Structure formats: C-alpha cells, structure tokens
C-alpha cells in the first residue's frame, strides 16, 4: 500500500514532560521537608497543614502519581505514536487526560494538607477525587486503545504490552480498593473492615508499586533503552516469559505487607511464596535491559542518558531482589515497621523511577526541540550527584533499621527488655535521620542541574509540535492464526484477546486471595467483647486519621515475645471487625498504640498525660521527635457529622442500633464531660467540647474491649 | 550505512539472531532466556510448593501462634532460673552511694520525669515525690509496690514486666535517699496524707 504522511503529536508529550519536571521539584522539596521533620521536629512549624502526618502522604502521592505518573504519560504518548505509526486517536482526549490528571494532583495536595484523607497508603484521596481519577484513567485507556486500534503496525511491541497491563490493572485496583460509603462531601468510610480492609489495601498498595511504578516503567525501558543505546533488544523470548509471569505472579504478593499480623496464615503464605517466585520474572526485565547494552558499553562511559538508564535498571534489579528477601517471614520480623522499608522504596523510587525518567527526558528533549542537549557535562554531574544521593540516603536508613530492630528485640539476662523506653531506640538512630537528609539534598541538587539543563536546551531549539512521519496502512489479514504463526505472535496482532488475557492473568490471583477473605467467616474468629466504639471515640478516631497518626504509629502487636512484653497481648483478627478503615500502619517511628487503652497495660497513659503530650511531646518525653498538636487543645469538636457518620458505619455493617444516630451526640457529650472532669482533677482546665477530649477517648478505647473480656473471664 | 546498522555491527555474531521485528527502528534478537534465570525461576516454584506443604499440608512447620507459644515457653524457663531472692515483703533500702548514683540512670531511663518531673517535683500528670505527703504510703515497701504494680486507673504504669526487683529496689532507694526532703523549683502542691 501507498505510504501516507501523518504527524505525531509532540505537544502532548511536552505538556506531560513539563508537568513531570514541575511535580518532581515539588515532590522532592516536600520529601526534603519530611526528612528534616524526622531529624529536627521544629520543621513541623506547629501548624496542622505543615505537620508530618499530613505532609508525608503529600510527598508519597506527589512522587508516585504526580512525578512518576506524568513521566509515564510523557514516555507513553511519545512511544505509543511511534510504535504504532499513527498520531494519537484523539488530541482532545489527550488534553482531557492531561488537565484531568493535573486537577487530581492539585486537589490531592490541597485536600491532604487540609486533613481529608482515607488513610489507606497511596490511596489516601477522598471519594470525589477517587471518582475523578477513575474518569481520567478511563479517558487515558480509551485514547490508548483507540490508538492501538488504528495502528499502521501489525504487531504490538512489548512496551505496549506493559502499557496495556497497566491500564487494565490500575483501573481494577483503584476501583475495588476505593469503595467507600460517604458521610460528607470529603469524608467516607471504607466498605471493608479490619483484616479484609488490610488485605484489599495491600493487594492495592503492593500492586500500585507493581502496575504504576513497575510495568509502565518497563514499557518505557523497552522503548527508550534500545533507542538510546541503538541496540536490538537482547531476547524477544525473555520478554514474553517475563511479561506474563510478572503480571500473573505480582498480583498475589500483597499479603507480604502483613506478615506476622492478624491475617490468616494461608494468606500470609500466599504473600511469601508468590513474592519469592516473583524474583526471576522481575529480573527478566533487568537482564533484558542490561544485555541489550552488549556492544554499547563503550558508549555508556560518555553518555549520561545511558548511565542513568543503567543505574535505573540496576536499582530495579536491587529492589526486586530485596523485595522477595523482605517477604521471608524471618527477615520481615526484623525489617517490618522499621526504616528498612523506607530505604527499600527509595532505591526503587530514586533509582529505578527517578533515574529512568531523567534518562528518558535527557534523550527526549533534544529530539522534541530539534537540538542538542545544552550540557552533557552537567548531565554527568547530575548523574553522579544523584547516585551519591541515593547511597547517602539509603545506607544510613538500612543501618538505622537494623540497629533499631535489634534494640526493640533485645532482652537482658533477667528476661526484661533491654530498652523499655522506646525513646532510647529513636535517639540512637537520629544521626542516621540527619545523614538521610543530606542524601536527599544531594539528589535534589542534581535535579536542579537537570532542570537548568533542560530549560536551556528547550530555549536553544525550536519545538517541533507536529512531527512528520510516513507509513503505509496495514494490508487486511485474517483474524485467524496463519500457518507458521506462533500463538504469541498471533495474539500480538490481536489487541482485544491480548487485553483479555492480561486481565485474566491479573484476575486469577486477585480473586483467589480477595474473595475468600471477604466471604469466609473462619478467617476472622469473633471476639464477643468487641463492640463498636462510642460516638466520641469515633470522632477521636477520625481526628487520628485526619492528623495522619498512623504514618508513625502502628496498631498491630505481632506475636513476638519482644512485642507482647513491650506493648501487651498480640493483635487478633476479631478485634478489628468494626474498623472502617483498618489503622494498622506500616511504620513505627513511635511506639505501637494497639494497647493504649488497656488499663494496667504498659501502654496506658492517663488523660492528663495525653493532654500534656499532645500539647508538647518533648515536655513529657525527653528528646521526643513527635510534632506538637496545639490546635487539638484549642479546636472545638465538630459534632455536625456525628449522625451521618453513625449512619454510614451502619451501612457498612457496624451494628449501631436503629435510631442511635439521634442519641449519639448526647452520649458523646456525657463521655466528653467525664474526661474533662478527669483532666480537671489533675489540674488541667479545659472544656468538654475540644478535639483533644475525643482523641483521648479514642486512645483509651484502643484494645479496651479485648482486655475487658480477659477480666470478665477471671 | 546508517548509524543504526553500524552499531548493530559492533556485534556481528548478533546478526544471525536478528528477528524480522522492527518497531520504530527497534529490532529484537532471538536469544533464549538465560538458562540460569529459568533454572532459578523453576527452583523458586519448587521451593514454594515445599513451603506450602511444610506449613499447611503436612503440618510440619509451626503456625504463627505455635511459634509464639514456643518462644514464650523458652522465655519462662529462662526467667524461672533468674528469680530474685527478695520482693516487696523483705525489701531493704540501699545506702551505698556508688549504687545510689545509678538510681538517677534508672529514673531517667524509665522516663519517670514525664510524670514526676526531672527532680521529682511532680507535674500535671504525677505527684510530687520530694515532699512529706504520700498518696500510697512512704515506707520502702509501699514505694516498691507502687512502682512494681502501678496504679493503672490513675496513669501510673506497673513496671513489674519492665524492671527487675533489684532495679525497683534501687529506684525506691534513690527516691527515699535523693529526692525526698529536697525542695526543687516548681514543686507541685502536696497530695495525699502527711507522713512525718
């Protein structure tokens, strides 16, 4: 057929590219702030919206969805058009996707700063934003699939396989994990409770890493690495094997985030074995990338682009080796709740995601602007600063993690914990937190060089908005398999069956793990004494969520002697049946709070202690790095939503009696008065209508029901 | 010859492996997946099958709860050997100055100052330890028991699981010898009964 002339849309690529760079700067600056806050609590500034619990999710969301997200779209819009030899299906859908995504990001940043959060990690955004995300995602998917449908290339290249699996899986994960019943415009309760919520959340959380930070990035790698190296892809067969095994196995591995927690043993085992089996499918990507560079290694020395890509792929290999190791229960017993996880994800985030995107943009920008990179030397300096930054960031945190975990677990010869005061284990690792700031700072300085280099490059060239290309339309061919055509080759030219197969691959593991967790009663042995919390405690719980307390405090005592002695009885699945959402947390920057309400327990503190502690933690606990929460002492508790909250919780299955919502605020006030009286007796003059009262009530509800069942049995 | 072909020719041995794939100039080689990679992949699958058999089908591996029970049993056996030869019934006060100097370390390590102030002066949370007024008695035995068993409903943590009897004895002695009778700044008003 005759060749046709058409134009690639580079404008949409530039739009996403600029957004990538802007949000990278924001995300890293916020990252620097949270790192500073951990080392020097004064950086919390005593304001609600600058305090760690609210800022930390802004950092993670900005890096994952704003920086890496826009980076993925930049590379995808560029490579899709060229791999399919066509302009994108719709310029308008592309713009809707772009502006919709930026709207999501801005509303996320504002709402998180204001304390509107669903508390699920990397899924913190509230329901109206969740709906917007789903709509924008569908627009992207529609545009992509319609572009695939009108392609001028018979077979679909491996990069696009990865894009397809990304679009399909993220849609499924996002929708299922975000299901919630609203109680207000910016508030909702997850439809899942306790271990079910934990299971769904980490099925999502783990696979957000898989299908947002990994598969689309592998797609970018498969396009930009061979392009930049000018070398053929090492093994087509390996790409088939590792693509299918990766997406099939990844989806199962979520429960490794919940090892030794109140999850049924069978689910934990699934998390362990599928994580271990994931090692080689992950490495398939790294190996195919690195071996593609055979014959081009001499150029790696001179080319900053290739250097970034080599370190990115190597960092990917390192973190995907570390992942299965951390999924072994014996290793996880030490690593979980420590800074190990933080170091691990930053090897992935700074190394794999960050470096691949930097490499890609260094390659892309001169081509979009028909010019040369302004300074190769500056790009090389960026590379070295970034690499050094990653090392100085991660190594101290590994050190901190192992030190602290060993201190938590050490017993004296007499059988007592060697470090009963949690603070001792924090003070010990503070120098490591300070070093980590330095690592992040170096990485950021490198990025500023990148920013300058890219801006000057763009200024020195002339932007090619519509790039001319030529290709012939496809000859019609039978949909059936041709003689001599392998099954995979056939499915590569049939995008609908391909997409269905990819969906099945991710659906199998999801269904086998999630459905029994939701349906099978025996997974959650009931505890008769566990009752729904009171309206005041519920309001306190929502304050706990609003302030992001769960970012530093777990509510999950694992069945280890060291934890039972330090915190109290280990957590049972039946305790959490009314927890919408669950609040187990994933990091112990401060101590676990699951037993904070057990009178006579080691974690119980009086109302006066909590009051003084929230006002100024360092006054009560010497050297504490916890931020101050003075506004909780001043703010009046908002009672206007109590009724709606009780109703929403009843809808998701919490057995508040019919009509209780009318009585709830009266009960709330009575309980609040009791706490205010208790504070008064200790010489603290406050009124019963303050937020601090609700938070104290919630602290005293934690673990109370299960401890009362013990007393009753005696 | 384009630059692309030149580069491909860096490794002429690859030419015969080139597939007829061409995606925007990206070619693919027909190399097999590295055998070591596939071998390790199969090994992880076999390991996983064994893992599931070991822990769930044959029952030869302990469950999480069994593992915990085992660890606690070991700890109890160790603890049984280490029981101190005294408790609240026969506590005596330590007067050795060198030992008493270590009392301040325990006072700090257990974060006593959080509720009783750095010099025992008391604060909004806990009572003054330096005056002659006591809520739960001022005898060595009383103070020992207050520390050991606490008053959970008032916020005083029981320290029996966190401190040995020797350490509680030393802390009691420190309070009696070094805190009581001092007159620190910001002392809290008296609470409880007067003991002369």
Fold and architecture overview:
The complex is a heterodimer of chains A (714) and B (196). Chain A is mostly helical. Chain A has two domains: 7-475 and 487-512, Cytochrome C Oxidase, Chain A (Up-down Bundle), CATH 1.20.210; 535-713, Cytochrome Bc1 Complex, Chain D, domain 2, CATH 1.10.760.10. Chain A is 64% helix and 3% strand. Chain A has helices spanning 11-39, 52-84, 91-113, 127-149, 158-178, 194-211, 215-229, 236-250, 265-277, 279-292, 297-300, 304-326, 329-335, 340-368, 376-409, 422-460, 487-492, 495-519, 535-546, 561-567, 607-615, 617-620, 630-634, 642-651, 660-681, 691-699, 704-713; strands at 3-9, 180-184, 187-190, 466-472. Chain A has a two-stranded antiparallel sheet with strand order 1-4. A two-stranded antiparallel ribbon of chain A has the order 2-3. The longest helix of chain A has 39 residues, at 422-460. Chain B has a domain at 92-194: Orthogonal Bundle (Cytochrome Bc1 Complex, Chain D, domain 2). The radius of gyration of chain B is 35 Å and the shape is elongated. Residues 1-9 of chain B have low confidence and may be disordered. Chains A and B meet through helix 2, helix 7, helix 8, helix 9 and helix 10 of A and helix 1, helix 2, helix 3 and helix 5 of B.
